[in-house]
Amino acid sequence: MDSFRIGFVSGKLGDVDGVSLEVEKWINVLQDMGHEVVTIAGKYRAPLTLIPEEHQVVFPEIRFDSPSQRHYERIFFPYLNKVPVYLTEEKLKGYVEECIREGLEVGEHLFEKVKDFDLDVLIAENTNAMPMTLLGGVAVHHVATEKRVATIFHHHDFWWERSRFSNNRIETFLNRIMPPSDIGLEHVVISSYAAHILTSIKRVSPHVVPNCEDFDHPVVLDDYNSDFRQELGFSERDVLVVQPTRIVRRKRIEDSIRLIAALLRAYPDLRGRVHYIISLYQGDEPDVDYVDQIKALAEREGIPLHLIAERVSAVRGRDAEGRKLYTNRDVLVNADLVTYLPLWEGFGNALLEAVAARVPVVTTTYLVYKTDIKLPGMRLIEVRDRYDEDGRLIIPDQTLEEIHHVLTHPEERKVRVEETFQVARAEFGLHTLRKRLERVFELYGDEIRASRKRLRKAKRLYSV
């Protein structure tokens, strides 16, 4: 197989969100396959460790929080506004045309980056699936369809799956580019369900490349992370229940708090020992009210809640005050139990991270878990995705009994997490990622080579 110069394009990288984490795994595998990688991102929360700094291009026009993005979000997505924005059809049409025009200018700048770095193919990370970088979506679409640069669209989730974006004024515009269905493009999704939906809606046949995890080099307690409890003020006797996600509504963190409260009512021997930790930050879905609701619910239920995002980073290091920064994996390897009760997930990156850290996980049987993750031999604590008339997850007594048993029988816990680890390793290890990516590049290779020739010709004409 040829080696290619690959450019990743994303609104944000070097963070602890699912897209950033998967990109780093892809970079790891693609470089091991002999390819060269350049990243083009609106923002890097932390530098990437796998590629040289000069190959990490900052492209602020496609940041999630750019002034243009905030401007268009306010106009196009009413759900995001506390104060309604009223527009005539003519005015709205003008804003759409303005967004497209501005995006095309960004696309020309992006095309210059492609030529500057002699890129053979772009991998667009959610730019044309979720409108969190509208200018980035227009720009990538322009480069892929008008400039005919070979492009692989890596879709992690879709705009119609989020209420804040599904309620919009620009459905026709979004349908055209998010995602596009033009010929000569390649699409990758992370679940069989997403593949079914994309095939049904767009009549394209995407590759399925699941979220994977490096089970060959899993996190373990080491000299760096073994002081986590001491650093954060916990004792060895404390039971640390970790929510290893961002604080967004679809994660249903309120159900995790209610589960812990029910556990403590059923098993008072755990009272005074359980601490509930949310490891990641609020994220790119601004909802201050939800954070306040979570804090208030935990207080009402008497659950000690710890929001530790300021101590968690994509890479180990120190903060401005000199305090240790831990990765999410460092937090997980110190956990006694992980809660993962989403209403909906594109896949389940945090779930795999917890399994790799050999921690017991209690999870809802959300759709993609049932279709793509649940395997014989994976011994997770499952809560059926059933909800009462008030929308609260129904938590059976049997679930509480199973959690208590795992927490109080360390030898059985050890066997259980090891069996789950080995099953997940066989199915979702980096060898799976490599095999799937080899197939993608094998089938798309002719288009990439043709794109390489077109770009070299364009560079010659440009340089005259």
Automatic annotation (TrEMBL):
Protein name per Swiss-Prot or TrEMBL: Glycosyl transferase group 1
InterPro entries: Glyco_trans_1
Keyword terms, alphabetized: Transferase
Gene Ontology molecular function, alphabetical: glycosyltransferase activity
Domain Glycosyl transferase family: 227-366
Keyword Aminoacyl-tRNA synthetase: no
